[in-house]
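User: Okay, second chain of the day. Same drill as before: sequence in, C-alpha coordinates out.
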Amino acid sequence: MHGVWSHDVADFALKARVTQDNNAFKVFRNAFTTQLTPDGVAAISAAHPLIGGGTTSNLISGALSSTTLNTAIVALRNQVDQTNVVLGGVPSMLLVPSELFKLATEITESALISDSANNALNVYRSAYGITVWASPQLSAAVAGGSATAWFLMTRNNGVIRIVRQGIETALRDWRYSNNRTYFYQGNFREEVYVQDYSGLVGSTGL
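Assistant: Same drill. C-alpha coordinates below.
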Protein backbone atom coordinates (compact mmCIF):
# COMPACT_ATOMS: atom_id res chain seq x y z
CA MET A 1 0.00 0.00 0.00
CA HIS A 2 2.75 2.42 0.94
CA GLY A 3 4.59 1.64 -2.30
CA VAL A 4 1.48 2.48 -4.32
CA TRP A 5 1.01 5.79 -2.54
CA SER A 6 4.71 6.62 -2.87
CA HIS A 7 4.48 6.06 -6.63
CA ASP A 8 1.31 8.16 -6.90
CA VAL A 9 2.87 11.09 -5.02
CA ALA A 10 6.01 10.93 -7.19
CA ASP A 11 3.82 10.86 -10.29
CA PHE A 12 1.88 13.84 -8.95
CA ALA A 13 5.13 15.81 -8.54
CA LEU A 14 6.27 14.86 -12.05
CA LYS A 15 2.96 15.96 -13.58
CA ALA A 16 3.20 19.27 -11.72
CA ARG A 17 6.66 19.97 -13.19
CA VAL A 18 5.47 18.96 -16.66
CA THR A 19 2.50 21.30 -16.31
CA GLN A 20 4.85 24.14 -15.38
CA ASP A 21 7.04 23.43 -18.41
CA ASN A 22 4.07 23.14 -20.74
CA ASN A 23 2.74 26.48 -19.50
CA ALA A 24 6.14 28.16 -19.87
CA PHE A 25 7.05 26.82 -23.30
CA LYS A 26 3.76 27.89 -24.87
CA VAL A 27 5.55 31.24 -25.27
CA PHE A 28 7.85 29.61 -27.80
CA ARG A 29 5.22 27.34 -29.36
CA ASN A 30 3.21 30.48 -30.17
CA ALA A 31 6.19 32.77 -30.79
CA PHE A 32 5.50 33.12 -34.51
CA THR A 33 1.73 33.61 -34.16
CA THR A 34 -0.26 34.56 -31.08
CA GLN A 35 2.44 35.28 -28.47
CA LEU A 36 2.66 39.04 -28.80
CA THR A 37 5.13 41.55 -27.40
CA PRO A 38 4.06 45.02 -26.18
CA ASP A 39 4.70 46.38 -29.69
CA GLY A 40 1.65 44.45 -30.89
CA VAL A 41 3.28 41.84 -33.13
CA ALA A 42 4.40 38.26 -32.62
CA ALA A 43 7.47 37.66 -30.44
CA ILE A 44 9.34 36.42 -33.52
CA SER A 45 8.44 38.70 -36.40
CA ALA A 46 9.95 40.29 -39.49
CA ALA A 47 8.22 43.59 -38.67
CA HIS A 48 8.74 44.83 -35.11
CA PRO A 49 7.88 48.56 -35.24
CA LEU A 50 10.50 51.08 -34.13
CA ILE A 51 9.58 54.22 -32.21
CA GLY A 52 11.25 56.51 -34.73
CA GLY A 53 9.64 54.77 -37.68
CA GLY A 54 10.43 51.70 -39.70
CA THR A 55 10.67 48.11 -38.53
CA THR A 56 13.23 45.51 -37.47
CA SER A 57 13.24 41.73 -37.71
CA ASN A 58 14.18 38.92 -35.35
CA LEU A 59 12.95 36.20 -37.72
CA ILE A 60 15.56 33.87 -39.22
CA SER A 61 14.85 31.83 -42.35
CA GLY A 62 15.81 28.20 -42.77
CA ALA A 63 16.36 24.94 -40.96
CA LEU A 64 18.94 24.75 -38.18
CA SER A 65 22.44 24.41 -39.60
CA SER A 66 25.88 25.88 -39.09
CA THR A 67 25.05 28.53 -41.70
CA THR A 68 21.68 29.56 -40.27
CA LEU A 69 23.08 29.55 -36.72
CA ASN A 70 25.74 32.00 -37.85
CA THR A 71 23.02 34.13 -39.44
CA ALA A 72 21.18 34.13 -36.10
CA ILE A 73 24.35 35.10 -34.22
CA VAL A 74 24.95 38.05 -36.55
CA ALA A 75 21.29 39.07 -36.20
CA LEU A 76 21.62 39.06 -32.39
CA ARG A 77 24.86 41.03 -32.48
CA ASN A 78 23.31 43.66 -34.77
CA GLN A 79 19.86 43.65 -33.18
CA VAL A 80 18.41 47.06 -32.32
CA ASP A 81 15.92 47.99 -29.63
CA GLN A 82 12.78 50.02 -30.30
CA THR A 83 14.80 53.24 -30.27
CA ASN A 84 17.03 51.82 -33.03
CA VAL A 85 20.10 51.41 -30.79
CA VAL A 86 22.34 48.43 -31.62
CA LEU A 87 22.46 46.25 -28.51
CA GLY A 88 25.34 43.92 -29.43
CA GLY A 89 23.71 40.87 -27.85
CA VAL A 90 25.97 37.88 -27.15
CA PRO A 91 24.37 34.48 -27.92
CA SER A 92 24.12 32.23 -24.90
CA MET A 93 21.31 29.69 -25.35
CA LEU A 94 20.10 27.63 -28.29
CA LEU A 95 16.60 26.35 -27.58
CA VAL A 96 15.35 23.43 -29.67
CA PRO A 97 12.70 20.68 -29.62
CA SER A 98 13.77 17.12 -28.84
CA GLU A 99 13.95 16.33 -32.55
CA LEU A 100 16.80 18.83 -33.05
CA PHE A 101 18.84 18.13 -29.92
CA LYS A 102 21.36 15.84 -31.63
CA LEU A 103 21.94 18.25 -34.51
CA ALA A 104 22.14 21.31 -32.24
CA THR A 105 24.67 19.60 -29.98
CA GLU A 106 26.81 18.48 -32.93
CA ILE A 107 26.88 22.01 -34.32
CA THR A 108 27.75 23.72 -31.06
CA GLU A 109 29.80 21.13 -29.13
CA SER A 110 32.01 19.38 -31.70
CA ALA A 111 35.67 20.21 -31.16
CA LEU A 112 36.07 20.64 -34.92
CA ILE A 113 33.56 21.48 -37.63
CA SER A 114 30.86 18.81 -37.32
CA ASP A 115 30.21 16.33 -40.13
CA SER A 116 33.19 17.63 -42.07
CA ALA A 117 36.66 16.44 -43.00
CA ASN A 118 37.97 19.99 -42.69
CA ASN A 119 40.30 20.32 -39.70
CA ALA A 120 38.98 23.66 -38.45
CA LEU A 121 37.92 24.94 -35.04
CA ASN A 122 34.25 25.03 -34.19
CA VAL A 123 33.83 28.76 -33.47
CA TYR A 124 30.46 28.23 -31.80
CA ARG A 125 32.19 26.15 -29.14
CA SER A 126 35.44 28.06 -28.79
CA ALA A 127 34.23 31.65 -29.09
CA TYR A 128 30.67 31.69 -27.77
CA GLY A 129 30.15 28.65 -25.58
CA ILE A 130 26.49 28.41 -26.58
CA THR A 131 24.48 26.07 -24.36
CA VAL A 132 21.88 23.84 -26.02
CA TRP A 133 18.56 23.46 -24.23
CA ALA A 134 15.96 21.01 -25.51
CA SER A 135 12.43 20.40 -24.32
CA PRO A 136 9.77 17.92 -25.40
CA GLN A 137 7.28 20.73 -24.72
CA LEU A 138 8.48 22.33 -27.97
CA SER A 139 8.27 19.17 -30.05
CA ALA A 140 5.70 18.10 -32.61
CA ALA A 141 4.21 15.72 -30.03
CA VAL A 142 2.71 18.72 -28.18
CA ALA A 143 -0.20 20.72 -29.61
CA GLY A 144 1.22 23.76 -31.38
CA GLY A 145 4.77 22.42 -31.21
CA SER A 146 7.19 21.94 -34.07
CA ALA A 147 9.96 19.50 -34.93
CA THR A 148 11.85 22.21 -36.84
CA ALA A 149 11.53 25.53 -34.96
CA TRP A 150 14.56 26.81 -33.04
CA PHE A 151 15.52 29.89 -31.02
CA LEU A 152 18.77 31.65 -30.15
CA MET A 153 18.85 33.91 -27.10
CA THR A 154 21.15 36.10 -25.07
CA ARG A 155 21.38 35.57 -21.34
CA ASN A 156 19.42 38.77 -20.70
CA ASN A 157 16.57 38.12 -23.11
CA GLY A 158 13.05 39.51 -22.86
CA VAL A 159 11.25 36.27 -21.94
CA ILE A 160 10.09 36.71 -18.35
CA ARG A 161 8.73 34.16 -15.87
CA ILE A 162 6.64 35.57 -13.03
CA VAL A 163 5.97 33.26 -10.09
CA ARG A 164 2.99 34.48 -8.09
CA GLN A 165 2.85 31.29 -6.05
CA GLY A 166 5.15 28.28 -6.12
CA ILE A 167 3.77 24.76 -6.08
CA GLU A 168 1.85 24.17 -2.86
CA THR A 169 0.43 20.80 -1.87
CA ALA A 170 -2.16 19.76 0.70
CA LEU A 171 -3.65 16.53 1.98
CA ARG A 172 -7.40 16.68 2.58
CA ASP A 173 -8.39 14.35 5.39
CA TRP A 174 -10.90 11.54 4.75
CA ARG A 175 -13.23 13.09 7.33
CA TYR A 176 -13.96 15.87 4.82
CA SER A 177 -14.93 13.52 1.98
CA ASN A 178 -18.16 11.76 1.13
CA ASN A 179 -16.57 8.35 0.64
CA ARG A 180 -13.95 8.31 3.43
CA THR A 181 -10.94 8.84 1.14
CA TYR A 182 -7.94 11.10 1.35
CA PHE A 183 -7.41 13.68 -1.40
CA TYR A 184 -3.92 14.97 -2.26
CA GLN A 185 -3.96 18.21 -4.22
CA GLY A 186 -1.65 20.96 -5.35
CA ASN A 187 -1.61 24.21 -7.28
CA PHE A 188 0.69 26.96 -8.49
CA ARG A 189 0.27 30.41 -10.00
CA GLU A 190 2.80 31.66 -12.52
CA GLU A 191 2.95 33.16 -15.98
CA VAL A 192 5.54 33.57 -18.71
CA TYR A 193 5.45 36.37 -21.26
CA VAL A 194 7.69 38.27 -23.68
CA GLN A 195 8.21 41.81 -22.47
CA ASP A 196 10.56 42.67 -25.35
CA TYR A 197 11.88 41.02 -28.51
CA SER A 198 15.43 42.08 -27.59
CA GLY A 199 17.86 39.20 -27.07
CA LEU A 200 15.71 36.74 -28.99
CA VAL A 201 15.74 35.49 -32.59
CA GLY A 202 14.07 32.42 -33.98
CA SER A 203 13.18 30.37 -37.03
CA THR A 204 10.28 28.12 -37.91
CA GLY A 205 12.92 25.88 -39.48
CA LEU A 206 11.30 26.20 -42.89
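The radius of gyration is 21 Å.

User: Thanks, on to the next one.
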